[in-house]
Amino acid sequence: MHDLISFPIPLGAVKNGIDSGDTAWMMVATALVLMMTPALGLFYAGLVRSKNALNTFMMSLGAMAVVSVTWVVIAYSLAFDKGNGFIGDLHNVFLRHVTNGPRTGLAIPELVFVCFQASFCIITAALISGAVVERMRFGSYLVFAALWACLIYAPMAHWVWSSNGWLAHRHVMDFAGGVPVEMASGFSALAAALVVGARKDFGRQAILPHNGVYALLGASLLWFGWFGFNAGSALTTGKQAPLAFTNTLLAPATTLGVWMLIDYLRGRKATAIGAATAIVVGAVGITPAAGFISPMSAILLGGLAAIPSYALIVWRPRTRLDETLDVLAAHGLAGFTGILFIGFFAQASWNLTGNGLLFGSPIQLGRQAIAAGAAPVYAFCGTFILLKLMGLVMRIRVHERDEGKGLDVGQHGEEAYTRGEGAILIRPEHAFDLEYEGSAK
Fold it and tell me: Residue 90: which of 268, 179, 312, 98 has the closest Cα?
C-alpha cells in the first residue's frame, strides 16, 4: 500500500531507521519492475508487423528515458508530496528535500522509494504505446509520455497512495496499481487510439502478429518482473509481500488455463498469442488485489478476469476502433475487474487492512466502486484533451508514406531484420520504393 501503512521493523536489523533486509528487497524489486519495460517492448514487438517491430520496441525504451527524468524532476513531487486530495505540491521538485534517509513510515531510504515508484510510472506510460503503434510519430510519443506522467499518472497515484489522496481518505484498497497503472493505461489507450485514428490498412486487410515467440517470451518476462511489481508494493518483506508474491503466481496461471480452454472451445486450438495475452490479463487482474485477498480468491480472480477481457478482444476488431494491441481489454478492463473484486473478497485475516462484502464489510465494495468509476473517466478525458492540445502544436501521426513502408525505416532509418546473405543491400529509405516497383510488375 506504498506510504499508507507502517510495518513492524524486526529488531536487530535497523540502522539509522533503515532496515537492511527491506532495502535489499526493494532494490531487487525495482530492478525487476524496470526489466518489465523492455519485456513489454518485446511483447509488443511480436504483436505488430515486422516493418514496425523496431519502432514498437523503441517506444517502450524511449519511455524509460523521458519518464525517468520527468519523474525525478517533477512527477514524483506531484504524486507523493502532501498537496491536496487531487495532486501533490512542488516541495520535492528536482528531488529537493529528498535524502538517503528513511522514507516517512517506512524502513527503506527515500531514494529507493523514488526509484521504485519511477519504475511504475515508466511502464505505465509505455503501455499506452500499444494503442497507437504503427502510426504515431516517435518524437510526439516521447513528448506525450513526459506530459502524461505529470498530468495523468501523478495525480492518480496521489489519489490512492498519498496519505492526502481523496481515494486514500475514503479507504479505497489498491495494493499495486489498479487505479494509476492498469485503469489509467487502459482508458488512456482508448483515448489515444481515438485521437490518433486507425491505421490506413485497418479493416481492409488482415493485420497479423509477425512473431509469436517474441510475444510469448515478452509476456513470460513480464510475469517474472511482476513478482517485483506486486510483492515489492508491500515496501517491506513483511506479511503482505509473501501473500502478494504467491497471488502473482496463482492468478496469471489460472487466467492462462482458462484462456487456453476458451480458445480450444472456440477454435479447437490453444493459440500462442492468446496465451501471451492471458498471462498479462491475469497479472493485471491481481495487481490491485495482490496483498488483500487469499490465495484461493486469487485463483478465482484469475479465472474471472479472463472472461470479460477475452470477450472484448474478440469483439473489438468488429468495430471501427483500431486500439492496436488491446490495451483497454488487457489492462483497463482487467484492472477494473481487480479493483471491484477487492470489494467482495478482501479478507482481514490475510491482510493488514480490512474485509470485503463477503467477509462482513459491504461498505468496502462501495469504496472500490468509486475508484472504478473515477479512474476511467479521468484517464480517458485527460488523455483525450492532452493529445488534442498536442495536435495543435505538433504533428502526432506519421505521413501515410512512412506508415506504408514501416516506422522502422521511416522513424529510425533502420530495420529490425537484415536481409539474408547474398541479398542486394539497399539503403533503408529506398526499400519501400523497390518493394512497390516489384509488386507493380
Answer: 98
